[in-house]
Amino acid sequence: MGLARLLKLSPKTWRTPNPSTISFGLRRPVADFVRLESIKHESENLGSFSPSSFCRSIHDGSIRSHAYPKTNDVTGHHIAQDTERLCKLLCAQPNSSIESSLNGASVDVSPTLVLEVLKKLSNSGVIALSFFRWAEKQKGFKYSAEGYNALIEALGKIKQFKMVWNLVNDMKSKGLLNRETFALISRRYARARKVKEAVETFEKMEKFGLQPALPDFNRLLDTLSKSGHVEKAQEVFDKMEKRKFTPDIKSYTILMEGWGQEQNLLRLDEVYREMKDEGFVPDAVTYGILINANCKARRYDAAIELFHNMEANKCNPTPHIYCTLIGGLGSERRLTEALDFFERSKAIGFVPEAPTYNAVVGSYCQSMRMHDAYRIVDEMRKVGVGPQTRTYDIILNHLIKARRTKEAYRVFLRMSGEGCEPTLSTYEIVVRMFCNEERVDMAMRVWDEMKAKGILPGMHMFSTLINSLSRENKFDEACKYFQEMLDMGIRPPAAMFSNLKRTLLDEGKQDMVLILAQKLEKIRTTQLIG
């Protein structure tokens, strides 16, 4: 898009979208939110709420994790402190010289520290690249595949793919290139709706000395499916034989999961029947996908029937399947049945894990039995499986949806005191809550607290705050945050800039529109070099 098009005048009729179109439909102003300082010490009967977030892989029942270097407790504590300190410096002065900000930090730059900082900078590829280039010059720095991959992930999020491939060449020259690199590049292309490039990335593996194998092909299918391109995944799958790959049961279940996420049960059933025709016997993963797809389509009775069929076929349900049914039935306010599956899972010997507990918490919240939800949270703490940040996010979402915003804010404030620090997702929920309540002053206060902790916002969070500031005619502040977003290398949604542009033009601020348009054009047309 050229600069002239960016500056094209539009009718002066724009209004910010109705707040009810945002995730939590809150429109009632709240006049009695008290200040952070006074509310922090209030006691509330919320129960006693170690951040440890993980998600179960539907295909292997394991916990997903990256092969990051292990550290002992003492070293890990020091690295965590240094990571937080460096991120705070970078958040406080994102526009200043990275070197001048970091040179006085006096930290030992180890591969693990570099990796942890890069992970924290995942939403700011520009700052991540600058930090990486600074770290390269420090004593103790060592190149690692994990560090490169974390940087590639951050740059991929802001669509700096030319720089990404420069880094791939660097990794190859240093003998650090691995299969994970190509998988995450494919994922970033797919998320950016560059499906052709995602497939081409897989095809380039051989050129870089890595022979693609069936697990790599399955990862490509999984990437396409999970990025909303299951039709393309199906197309690639149908051409599998030309690539000299023979599909395994995981190939089929990946496609089944993709069609299930699209709530296309007809296509899911076609793949399921083809899988059985090829001689594969449905296993627990297969049943789990079928049950999850039916829950997503709100066909809960069919999901329960599948569960019983599974048992009749001597296929033992997994904790994941119980978790799916608990969450699905709970979301439909079929609380008694949800709790029955929870008790059944314990009766056959499964020790509840955090995802299962979170499903129970969500079920109680959906029926607004908050006292019971808090009781489960307390139980999680007692048995040592949480609560996690995800647990709090579930509670906050339900409280906000029920317009119990003061209680939601108290829960948010208690998180840190109960040993669970808010993450970006939590801050995004609370900032959105205050914006929807027309308390943008409180939203900015929470935003500042987040930045002070070294947590950088993402594009959606910027959009929420900027739109709210525009609604309240706080144009200088809106422009400040818009420029901050551009400085982080984040490309705003076209609609957001269009809305802001029209508002500024209505206010006669043509000069500011020109400045912002020039910055945006530079981001869209300039590839990073380094």
Blueprint of the fold:
Layout: H1 3-6, H2 36-39, H3 73-92, H4 98-102, H5 111-120, H6 125-136, H7 145-157, H8 161-173, H9 179-191, H10 195-203, H11 214-226, H12 230-238, H13 249-261, H14 265-277, H15 284-296, H16 300-312, H17 319-331, H18 335-347, H19 354-366, H20 370-383, H21 389-401, H22 405-417, H23 424-436, H24 440-452, H25 459-471, H26 475-487, H27 494-506, H28 510-525
Summarize the structure in words:
- The chain has 530 residues and is mainly alpha-helical.
- The chain is built from 28 helices and no strands.
- Helix 3 (73-92) crosses helix 5 (111-120) and helix 21 (389-401) packs antiparallel against helix 22 (405-417).
- The two termini are 25 Å apart.
- The model is unreliable at 1-57 and 60-69 (pLDDT under 50).
Work out the number of β strands.
0
Given the structure, what is the number of helices?
28
User: Which structural class fits the helix and strand makeup?
Assistant: mainly alpha
Largest sheet: none
Report helical residue fraction.
Answer: 55-70%
Kindly estimate the percentage of residues that lie in beta strands according to DSSP.
under 5%
Shape: globular
* Mean pLDDT, all residues: 84
Q: Spans of 5+ residues with little confidence (pLDDT < 50)?
A: 1-57, 60-69
Along the chain, the helix and strand elements come as HHHHHHHHHHHHHHHHHHHHHHHHHHHH
Distance between the termini: 25 Å
Radius of gyration: 25 Å
